Amino acid sequence: MEKALIAFAAALAVGLSAIATAWAQSRIGAAGAGTLAEKPELAATIIILVAIPETMVILGFVVAAMILFGV
Amino acid sequence: MIVRMSKVEIAGPRGLLEKVISLLQEMGMLQIEPSTIGFIEKKDEAYIDSFLPDKETLSERLFLEDLKAKLEELFLYLPDIPVRNSYIEPMVIIDTIKENLQRHLLTCREISHKKEGLQKELDELSRYSFFLDAIEPLLKSIKQIPDFDFIGLTLRDSEAIDTLRKVLMRHTEGKFELLTSIASDGTTVGLIAIKKEMSERIKKALSDKDIPELKFPSSFGNLAFVEKMTFLRKRISEISAEIEEINMRLESFSVKWGAIYRRVKEWINERLSVLKATASAFETGMCFFIYGWMASEDVDRLRIRLNQDFEGKVVLEEMEIREQDLDRIPVVLKNLTYFKPFELLTRILPLPRYTSYDPTLFIGIFFPLFFGMILGDAGYGLILLIISLVMIAYCRTKRDIQDGAKILSVGAMYSIFFGILYGEFFGELGYMLFGLEPIFLERRTAVIPMLYFALTVGVVHLGIGSLLGFIIALKKKTKKAILSKFFQILFMLSILSLVGSLFGLFPMLLTKPIILAILFLTPFLLFTGGLLAPLELIKSIGNIISYARIMAIGLTSVLLAFVANNLAGKTGDIVIGVVVAGLLHLLNIIIGVFSPAIHSLRLHYVEFFSKFIEPGGRKFEPLKKEGKV
Q1: For a tag site, which of B146, B449, B469, B496 has the least CB within 10 Å?
Q2: Residue B296 has pLDDT above 90, yes or no
Q3: What percent of chain A has a predicted confidence (pLDDT) above 70?
Q4: What confidence score (pLDDT) does residue B627 get?
Q5: Which among A43, A44, A55 has the least Cβ separation from residue B542?
Q6: Would the CB atoms of A47 and B549 count as touching at under 8 Å?
Q7: Chain B nearest CA to A58, separation (Å)
Q8: Nearest chain B Cα distance for residue A57, angstroms
Q9: Which of B179-188, B238-247, B273-282, B454-463 is least confident?
Q10: How many domains does chain A have?
């Protein structure tokens, strides 16, 4: 039972943060695509903006790893 | 690397100004500064004026501007086809060129306007062609009876067909024929055949029911429906032929005159840029002065050339660069052969300031390193190396593809190196085939050690970034920024030591002194960095954790390779197994090119560069001839 709870907690940590990242990236990506159509020179800024929320899922992954491996 | 720049002043007799500017344009080394700010002392400003061109120069400029406008208009009408190079000297025949240009412009303008009108008509008629294509087969299926009329319509949906049928039934007592078809653009089109005397009544009824009848252009006059169709087809083919003929005329004109006019335009632009540059010069009663910026390495070369061409009458002086000039110094990036391809990745970033660093150098060092750390498979690396070498060999003319391939080849080499360290060759295939053992870590099982490794890489990378930020602050001699950067580094080191001691990396005894040190440093941090300083620190911690992606993305790659090999083994058939494993490894390689590249770039753009790169540099734009690099 404890093992299942640990696995569930890890899944929640990575799953919820993945959903959050996906949601944020979808919004930024759509706006970024619109911006790029008008100002292609902003490509670097858009890449950075799209990449920023990725940290959330990486944090979630680290937390999940810590839960699973008992760090 | 950001090229070292010099602030220069060129002075000489007023009469030589134009010749000096022509020489500067030919050399293409100097960016002329149109303002005296930072070049002339306040007390001397009263003795120096902006250079005023004489009447002759002004009229030449107006003449050339007019010619340039006409040439630009002419090129708007001409097709963009490759033409030969012309080597005529436009200055000698400028009057003949002016006369011919006027005549040619009128002719080209006239035929282009005619073409425009025809194109417009063709576009308008083409709107009917979808209807025409759909309706023609229906017309053939209906018997051509003299006292019958046809009405063409477009219908919204199948409900509209039912409504139409009811309307027709009511008004014609069933004496009609309705045929429908779907046009190429998906619209439902209909054709009604009725007796001529009922035609007007039906058209009115359709209009009342909001069923749009197909209206032809007024130029079609009172032709019958079938005749309109024939006329439409005929007119479309006539217009297409006329447009084709005009295009051929313009093309042959372009072949005959394009090269000459292109050369004239180039010469006019060069001449105008010299004349415009004279407006950025300054004068006293006898002398002219030009102020500007140039690469320090070119100063001697320009000085020697000025001495040779003007027999010592024109002098070049290097001026002292002051602190207030730093924001105005234009920036040129120049890199060694190894780093040159990496400019592809820094070109999309804004130009750094003169006091900052060229990001190319850091991308060149760390990007392939991170790429290799993430992909970390000798087999994948080998395949990517072969692909990149083939691309380098076959795409010699396409510079961006060449650069991309060169970056990939370096990344692939790092990938082979880390693949050997991790003991990976197409996953664990290397171990199965020739007993390749991990030297450093086995990524698939050593998740936590790999996480620590990735975070350590992050700490070192960001440490370098923070140190470079501190050096920039030192160079700028801004006390507050120096102290702020210094305390930020100290604070980060303290927090990392605290985490280390809590996780058992340092003795637990150190925990209390470190907490005390953090408490001691906090007021200094707030005092030097302001209220946003703690936020900056939280961001820095987030930045370090972001390096965990090196492990996370790498883990997905190694697990996919593991799945590929195991799935192949489970098929029980050598051919199917090889196909399954091959496909999955191929997928992994494709992902393995994009994912590590994007994430390595992100670590640079978002995490690393935010520590020290100062964007907002001014681009170096020297006075030079058109097309000269």
Answers
A1: B146
A2: yes
A3: 99
A4: 62
A5: A55
A6: no
A7: 6
A8: 9
A9: B179-188
A10: 1
Q: What percent of chain B has pLDDT over 90?
A: 28
Q: Which residues of B touch A40 (CB under 8 A)?
A: none
CATH number of B5-75+266-331: 3.30.70
Q: CA angle B68-B71-B74, nearest 5°?
A: 155
CB contact under 8 A, A51 and B350: no
B448 to chain A: which residues are within 8 Å by CB?
65, 69, 71
pTM score, whole prediction: 0.71
For residue B420, the model assigns a pLDDT of 93
List the alpha helices (DSSP H) in B424-510: 429-434, 447-476, 479-502
Q: Chain B contacts of A44, Cβ < 8 Å? A: 348-350, 605
What is the spatial distance between Cα B101 and Cα B107, in angstroms, rounded to a whole number? 10
A59, closest residue in chain B (CA to CA): B545
**Partner-chain contact A48 B548, CB within 8 Å:** no
pLDDT at position B457 is 93
- Chain B residues at the A interface, defined by Cβ less than 8 Å, are 348-350, 447-448, 451, 503, 542, 545-546, 548-549, 552, 598, 601-602, 605-606
Q: Which two tokens stand for residue B437?
A: 């053992």
Contact by Cβ (8 Å): B306, B23? yes
Contact B442, B422 (CB under 8 A): yes
Range of the domain at A49: 2-69
- Note which residues in 14-43 of chain A have CB less than 8 A from chain B: 43
Mean pLDDT for A4-21 is: 93
Distance CA A28, CA A6 (A): 33
In contact, B126 and B236? CB cutoff 8 Å: yes
| Beta carbons of A55 and B451 less than 8 Å apart | no
Q: Which residues from chain A sit within 8 angstroms of residue B602, using beta carbons?
A: 47-48, 51, 54
Q: Is pLDDT at B212 greater than 80 in this prediction?
A: no
Q: Is A65 on the interface with B (CB under 8 A)?
A: yes
Fold agreement (B5-75+266-331, B120-239): yes
Average pLDDT, chain B: 85
> Pick from B503, B552, B606: which is nearest to A52 by CB?
B606
Phi-psi region of B382 (alpha: psi -120 to 50; beta: other; left: phi over 0): alpha
Q: What is the pLDDT of residues B154-181, one digit of tens each?
A: 777 777 788 888 888 888 877 787 877 7
Query: Among residues B497, B525, B534, which one has the least CA distance to residue B512?
Result: B497
Please, which pLDDT band fits residue B141 given cuts at 50, 70 and 90? low
Domain ranges of chain B: 5-75+266-331, 120-239
What is the pLDDT at residue B385? 95
- pLDDT of res. B142: 65
State the Cα torsion B239-B243-B248-B251 to the nearest 10°: 180
State the Cα–Cα distance between residues B435 and B452, nearest whole angstrom.
27
Helix (H, G, I), strand (E, B) or coil at B168: helix
Please judge whether B448 and A51 are an interchain contact, meaning their C-beta atoms are less than 8 angstroms apart. Answer: no
CATH number belonging to the domain at B120-239, selected among 3.40.50.1970, 3.40.47.10, 3.30.70.2750, 3.10.20.600? 3.30.70.2750
Q: Could A65 and B545 be called an inter-chain contact, meaning their C-beta atoms sit closer than 8 Å?
A: no
> What percent of chain B is predicted at pLDDT more than 70?
97
Residue B417 confidence (pLDDT): 95
Quote the minimal CA–CA distance from A65 to chain B in Å.
7
State the Cα–Cα distance between residues B274 and B281, nearest whole angstrom: 11
Q: What is the pLDDT of residues B453-465, one digit of tens each?
A: 999 999 999 999 9
